[in-house]
Design a protein that fits this description.
Distance between the termini of chain B: 76 Å
Strand content of chain C: under 5%
Order of helices and strands of chain C: HHHHEEHHHHHHH
Number of helices of chain C: 11
Radius of gyration of chain B: 23 Å
CATH class of one domain in chain B: Alpha Beta
Shape of chain B: globular
Distance between the termini of chain C: 52 Å
Chains: A mainly alpha (337), B alpha/beta (446), C mainly alpha (295)
CATH architecture of chain C: Orthogonal Bundle
Oligomer: heterotrimer
Chain lengths: 337, 446, 295
């Protein structure tokens, strides 16, 4: 296999893991708990910028042509851990403002506005993160390992990303398929019932907002280290919608389903379009990517709203229910696992 | 599913099919009409396999806010392709330009670049990596050992160590100093600065403003526009109140058009000192829509690379461009576009370097790029691919002087250009004066 | 003082453009409870219809009328062919938001595939600038302000005093009760979509005239500001939308004149978020509770 092909495959693998991590973050918020976070891409961006500043060194380094408030050169994995902390903290702040008082459709709207505001601020206040040009020359931790070829370094970075993906996946399983997960799903399905049982729905929303934000930030940190640059054009607000599509296609609330959804939608569609026999006008191909993303969402919501791999639900049969205190229902009743 | 739902499903399905149909129809019609890049993929890829052609990628944004970059570079690549192939190709290989969409952002550009490198075995060179993506993709081409001729203006590449990176035009910082020098040369005393907050405009803004100050002209207003807003009336009002004699400016087409149409409503639009962006057809189209053609042409002084547009290389280029209407939509719109011209010179330079190296291998011919462009004692000066190829065949050393002028690459592979002030007169850009190196030094302080 | 007065004048122009669209958005939302994020695409599509007519020599104001009809029809068609079936299929409020985004993306990018990523301008002179003390307005801007004032007055009046308006308001407050009282739900909803789409068409042309160049995604890019105006005023209230548009317009222009103009949108959005935190239902709306999608 040529080096070029290896880089290409490595790129695809990195993007799959990064998008899976991000989609899980959104799934925890939207799929499991029912929070419409239209600002999700912002937290990926925060992670990317934080990791960049924690690994680039002071602004005066690299010729001093980039503007950012401060920078240090910390060894891996400190930058990505820092990114998660900052992403989670910022998520908490945004959550505090939006999740407490607003009705949920306004919440969605305010998130959208927050995403747009962040882009305008970063582009306008150049000292924050070098404006529209963005940050570049972000070091890739795998490239610091000497004595091995560039291809080996690429595969090493793939390994780092997949390790992170597995870790996040394990955490997701732990969170979703546990009593805590039931509280989250209850918040989504019937807030009043959850509150009646003495659980705090707003607190549950806040918690998934912070955790999901930290996952988003992790994905951004890995992505920025891989591509070596990060700019506002990478995180325009419509990008969030791609993650929503991944969650819907994969299966809301389903950990393995969402990973598949991320691979298919965030990476698969983009690559597949390039191989379709529809000519090569790049503008049309780019438009088609968005059209396919929109169509996929609608098709799934119509034909298979539960997604490719549906969320696990425990079904109680009538005899089992009879053993429970009487409830007047007919046929099988679905209850969350 | 009930019958009722079935009907609904059919309706939705129908809508979906219709939408896909529109998209497919769009793909055909737009390939024909806008011609950003022709639908030549499948055919060409087949041809590649059989005839052993070599490929130059146009790696630029074809979608998103910078979608004009792609067609602009295409207007340089396709005429070069035409001339090179008419002269018998390079060492028996036909040259093919292939458009690849970078989408104008690093996160999309990196996988696109890696896919391109992996999927084409005969890729010999790249035009691309504008200011939007260069820092993320140039290292990939460097790693793959493929020469990349970039139009980025970023200072990051002023002293690059990437040996496969080549830049014909001066960086944005030099452009800014030249605009300041032009303000002085044109005799303006009260000058305003107006730049978009996008990465392209922000490259030249700092040196333009500092240059104007260094030349002891009065900066009466220094505005940065957040691109793509509903209105800039407050900014226009402030600009009008400041009463500048000239505005030194770079902003994208939509932002410029909105601002200047509003400025023309609240007061007079003064003279404009602009950069190569104002020679791009999209910018002119938008600005003519905003303030009118005669108003624009009376005011606009474009500070651009000095190339005697009457030069032989330029004439050859425009003739080939006008003949390329199959691949380039409305070719005449690009004939004064400096970036297109520079991209044309890039492809010709690559081709001549391959001839000189007797190899189309990127890793081999890269070292010959300076050898076919630098002045040397006894070198034959050539202005076209055909002439260069013939001279090389006779064993002569050549110096290609392109449509943008001589290409004097320094040790960092930056050529840099002389600057001139141009105005649009009687349907053509005319050089009104040339800025000397001393004049630009006075502005830059370097 | 003159800076303030002129900024105020500019704010009114911006507000007029926003108000036309914001009223359309809010009217349809209050009747159907579908948070229609494809609204911006309807603006763009109608704006392009006006562009094509304008290119073959039709006067821009006549083209605006055509855009209104076109926008209305597109809007009704989207609802009948896509939204309605999905609502009947049992998709909930959130699902519908996501579907409207999908529809918007398909429209925008379908249009972009056809017209390309280029810039377009109407062929319409802005007219002479007129000076009223420190106000400077062109004839075109005056016309847009007049149109905005007339349209919002008509919509508000119709809602207040006609039977149809009362039916719409009834549907907005309690769909089940309205249906029980004999309100022809389907036709009233269809009419709401038509009026909303027509306002989107007019708002789109006004916006494109104002910014003088546009692309296939311009409408969607400005949708957020429009929704901010509608939400600020209180979704469901046309006069709230007008007030919201005025606040956004004046805050952006006055803020731009005195503060960093690059951040004027940020200022307007911050005002919106603060207002919502203090008064979650917005300035004018009485209903703070969400309802299911009306059908």
């Amino acid at each position: 296999m040529s080096a070029g092909t290896q880089y290409y495959i490595a790129t695809i693998l990195v993007y799959i893991s990064v998008n899976a991590i991000a989609s899980w973050g959104l799934d925890l918020q939207f799929g499991v708990t029912g929070v419409l976070n239209f600002a999700f891409i912002l937290f990926q961006a925060v992670g990317a910028y934080t990791a960049a500043m924690l690994s680039l060194g002071p602004p005066s380094s690299n010729g001093g042509f980039q503007h950012y408030p401060f920078g240090v050169h910390l060894p891996f994995p400190v930058p990505i851990i820092g990114a998660m902390l900052v992403g989670g903290a910022l998520s908490g702040i945004v959550g505090l403002i939006t999740l407490r008082r607003l009705r949920s459709d306004y919440q969605a709207m305010v998130m959208l506005v927050v995403s747009v505001v962040a882009t305008v601020v970063i582009e306008s206040v150049i000292g924050l993160a070098n404006g529209s040009a963005g940050l570049s020359l972000i070091p890739n931790p795998a490239h610091t390992i000497s004595g091995v070829s560039r291809t080996a370094q690429s595969w090493l970075f793939v390994g780092i990303c997949w390790l992170c993906m597995v870790l996040v996946g394990v955490i997701m399983y732990g969170l979703v398929y546990s009593p805590y997960g039931r509280v989250l799903r209850g918040t989504r399905e019937n807030e009043a019932a959850i509150e009646a049982m003495g659980r705090d729905a707003t607190r549950a929303r806040m918690q998934v907002f912070v955790i999901g934000g930290a996952f988003g930030a992790l994905s951004g940190a890995l992505l920025a280290e891989f591509i070596g640059a990060w700019a506002p054009s990478d995180w325009l607000y419509p990008e969030t919608f791609v993650f929503f599509t991944a969650v819907i296609v994969g299966g809301r609330g389903s950990v393995s389903g969402v990973a598949i959804g991320a691979a298919l939608v965030c990476v698969g569609v983009q690559q597949a379009v390039q191989y379709l026999p529809i000519g090569s006008d790049p503008t049309v191909l780019a438009s088609l990517e968005w059209i396919i993303t929109g169509l996929l969402t609608m098709l799934f919501l119509w034909m298979r709203p539960q997604g490719l791999l549906p969320e696990r639900r425990r079904r109680f049969s009538i005899p089992e229910l009879r053993k429970l205190p009487a409830v007047g229902s007919e046929g099988a009743v679905e209850l969350d696992a | 599913m009930s019958t009722r739902n079935g009907t609904r499903l059919l309706t939705v399905g129908g809508a979906v099919v219709a939408a896909l149909g529109v998209a497919a129809w769009g793909s055909n019609s737009s390939a024909g009409s806008t011609g950003n890049a022709q639908s030549k993929s499948s055919g060409v890829k087949a041809a590649v396999a059989t005839t052993g052609s070599v490929e130059v990628a146009i790696f630029h944004a074809f979608s998103g806010p910078n979608a004009a970059y792609g067609p602009e570079a295409g207007a340089g690549c396709y005429p070069a392709e035409r001339l090179i192939n008419a002269a018998g190709g390079i060492l028996g290989h036909q040259l093919v330009c292939t458009p690849v969409d970078s989408k104008g952002d690093p996160a999309d550009a990196v996988p696109a670049a890696n896919r391109m490198i992996a999927s084409s075995s005969n890729l010999v060179g790249v035009l691309g990596g504008g200011s939007d993506t260069a820092t993320s993709v140039v290292p990939l081409f460097q790693q793959a050992k493929i020469p990349v001729f970039s139009t980025t203006g970023q200072s990051a590449f002023d002293k690059t160590k990437d040996t496969y990176f080549w830049r014909i035009l001066s960086p944005d910082a030099a452009q800014g100093s030249a605009m300041a020098a032009a303000a002085k040369k044109l005799g303006f005393k009260r000058v305003a600065a107006l730049f978009g907050n996008d990465s392209a405009a922000q490259g030249s803004a700092p040196t333009a403003v500092s240059g104007v100050k260094r030349l002891r002209l009065k900066v009466v207003a220094n505005q940065t526009l957040a691109v793509g807003q509903t209105s800039y009336r407050s900014e226009a009002q402030a600009m009008s109140t400041a009463k500048p004699q000239a505005i030194v400016s770079e902003a994208d087409p939509q932002t410029s058009a909105t601002f200047f149409s509003e400025l023309s409503q609240v007061g007079q639009v003064p003279k404009l000192i602009t950069d190569p962006v104002s020679q791009e057809p999209t910018w002119r189209k938008a600005m003519i829509g905003a303030i009118g053609k005669s108003a624009l042409d009376q005011r606009d002084y474009a500070v651009v690379a000095y190339s005697p547009m009457t030069s032989q290389a330029y004439k050859v280029y425009t003739a080939a461009l006008l003949a390329s209407s199959k691949q380039v939509s409305k070719p005449s719109q690009w004939d004064a576009d400096l970036y297109s011209v520079a991209d044309y010179d890039s492809v010709i330079t690559m081709a001549l370097a391959m001839d000189a190296a007797h190899s189309t291998k990127p890793g081999v011919y890269n070292a010959y790029i300076t050898k076919v462009t630098s002045p040397a004692h006894g070198a034959t000066v050539v202005h076209t691919y055909a002439a260069g190829k013939a001279a090389l065949a006779k064993g002569k050393r050549i110096q290609y002087v392109g449509a943008v002028g001589p290409l004097a690459f320094n040790r960092y592979h930056n050529a840099g250009n002389q600057f001139a002030i141009e105005q649009f007169v009687n349907g053509n850009w005319k050089v009104s004066s040339v800025l000397s190196a001393a004049e630009i030094r006075a502005a830059s302080g370097l | 003082m003159s800076v303030f007065i002129s900024a105020l004048g500019f704010g009114v122009v911006t507000a007029a453009i926003l108000a036309i669209s914001a009223v359309g958005f809010t009217l349809q939302f209050s009747v159907t409870n579908v948070f229609n994020l494809a609204f911006g695409s309807v603006m763009t599509l109608s704006g392009f219809v006006a562009y094509w007519l304008n290119q073959v020599g039709v006067d821009i104001w006549l083209a605006m009328l055509a855009a209104a009809i076109c926008g209305g029809l597109i809007s009704v068609a989207i609802n009948e062919l896509l939204y309605e079936p999905f609502i009947r299929h049992g998709v909930n409020l959130f699902g519908m938001v996501i579907i409207t985004i999908s529809v918007g993306l398909i429209f925008d990018h379908g249009l972009q595939a056809v017209v390309g990523p280029s810039f377009f301008s109407y062929n319409a002179p802005a007219g002479k600038a007129l000076h009223f003390a420190d106000f400077v307005l062109t004839r075109q801007e005056l016309a847009i302000i007049a149109i905005a004032a007339a349209l919002t007055a008509v919509v508000q009046g119709a809602l207040q005093y006609t039977r149809l308006g009362k039916a719409m308001r009834g549907l907005a407050v309690n769909p089940a009760l309205a249906r029980a009282c004999g309100v022809p739900t389907r036709s009233v909803i269809a009419l709401a979509w038509f009026v909303s789409g027509a306002l989107a068409g007019i708002g789109g042309v006004a916006l494109f005239l104002d910014i003088s160049t546009f692309t296939a995604t311009t409408g969607s890019e400005f949708l957020i500001v429009i929704i901010a105006a509608a939400v600020l005023g209180g979704v469901g209230s046309p006069r709230g939308a007008v007030l919201g548009a005025l606040v956004v317009g004046v805050v952006t222009e006055v803020g731009g004149a005195y503060w960093n103009p690059q951040l004027k949108d940020v200022l307007a959005f911050s005002v919106m978020i603060v207002v919502l935190l203090v008064r979650p239902q917005g300035l004018f709306a009485q209903l703070a509770n969400e309802r299911a999608v009306a059908r």
